[in-house]
């Protein structure tokens, strides 16, 4: 089996899917936007900065900090590893929150 060109992204997807069974999971690799930063000058990894949008019932009755801690806990090994995740931006929602967000964004999109 060929090795993946995105092993960290694949791991993020697998761990979040297994633990949270999200109805929405979008992963954006923004590493190229940060490659010039001083902290990244010795890094050879092309998978250091991610934006992740997760919608899951697992977030019901949890405040944002608890949701984020849950995701950080899932990815602690990848965040601790040399050449691993350097920055992780999260948007965590319940299905109801995602529905409300889409309803609020729809009138703004239609006004354009």
From TrEMBL:
Report the domain of life of the source organism: Eukaryota
Q: Which InterPro entries match?
A: BolA (IPR002634), BolA-like_sf (IPR036065)
Q: One Pfam annotation, family name?
A: BolA
Q: Where is the composition biased (Basic and acidic residues)?
A: 94-112
Gene Ontology cellular component annotations, sorted alphabetically = mitochondrial matrix
Under SUPFAM superfamilies, the record lists: BolA-like (SSF82657)
Question: What Gene3D superfamilies does its record include?
Answer: BolA-like (3.30.300.90)
Annotated stretches, region: Disordered: 86-112
GO biological process terms on file: [4Fe-4S] cluster assembly
Which family would the database say this protein is a member of? Belongs to the BolA/IbaG family.
Mind telling me what this protein is named?
Answer: Bola protein
